[in-house]
Amino acid sequence: MNKSSGFSMIEVLVALLITMVGLLGIAALQVKAQQAEMESYQRAQALIIMSDIVDRINVNRSTVSCFFITTNTTAGTPFMGVAGSGHMATPPSCSASTPTYNSQAEAAIIELDNLLEGAAETLAGADVVNVGAMIGARACISYDASSEIGGSAGTGLITVVVSWQAMGDLAPPTANCANGLYGAETKRRAVSTSFRIANLFG
Predict the structure, then answer these.
(1) CA 153 to chain centre
(2) How much is the pTM?
(3) Strands of the 157-165 sheet, one edge to the other
(4) CB 193, CB 160: distance < 8 Å
(5) Diameter of the chain measured on Cα atoms
(6) What gap in Å lies between CA 189 and CA 166, rounded to an integer?
(7) Mind listing the pLDDT tens digit for each residue in 124-149?
(8) Which helix (H) or strand (E) covers residue 190, if one does?
(9) 99-116 vs 9-59: helix crossing angle, rounded to 10
(10) Which domain covers residue 179, as residue numbers?
């Protein structure tokens, strides 16, 4: 009576199938990891830009009202950054202080607009492409007069919102900025902060 030895064709096919399923799982995991890394990078970039905006507003105290470009806080328009329906007028006009300070504020706003458009880093080729910011980076700056302390002008809350397009779907953010410009709202991400300008001479 002969004993069979080695592997049968069915056993080989089952082993190959198990190996293929494992390799496909590793590939899917790698894609998810890259997506999560991109999401993390974009959020970090958004937080840096948001902090930069706050710093520039604090530096330009005498012309702070010129930074309040977002008047429709429900739709999040106008905004700075990547062009789209609701982008701010360029160049912005400031008349809150002396010509020198007004020009300084206008220059700061234009610099922020360019920063959000990714102009700090470009990809050379047939056409130069800005790649220095998040996908669809936009920022909104608004002022809430109803939050003024004791009715004193200029003491209200200033809100800065930075929005961008994500790689995957999540619940829509509550902070409004450039709403409806990223396809589904589940693709829009946003970080925000609210602060007041301190009266250092009052």
Answers:
(1) 30
(2) 0.82
(3) 80-81, 138-144, 157-165, 188-195
(4) yes
(5) 107
(6) 6
(7) 665 666 677 899 999 999 999 999 99
(8) strand 188-195
(9) 180
(10) 9-195
How many structural domains compose the chain?
A: 1
User: Is residue 190 one of the residues assigned to a domain?
Assistant: yes
Domain-located, residue 150:
yes
Q: Which of 23-37, 98-112, 187-201 has the lowest mean pLDDT?
A: 23-37
Q: Classify residue 40: in a domain, yes or no.
A: yes
Q: What is the token pair recorded at 142?
A: 């608004």
Task: Please give the structure tokens belonging to residue 200.
Answer: 């250092």
Tokens of 170: 């999540």
Give which of 129, 133, 95 is closest to 111, Cα–Cα: 133
Q: Please report which helix (H) or strand (E) contains residue 157, including its range.
A: strand 157-165
In a domain, 35, yes or no: yes
| CB neighbourhood size of 161 (10 A) | 26
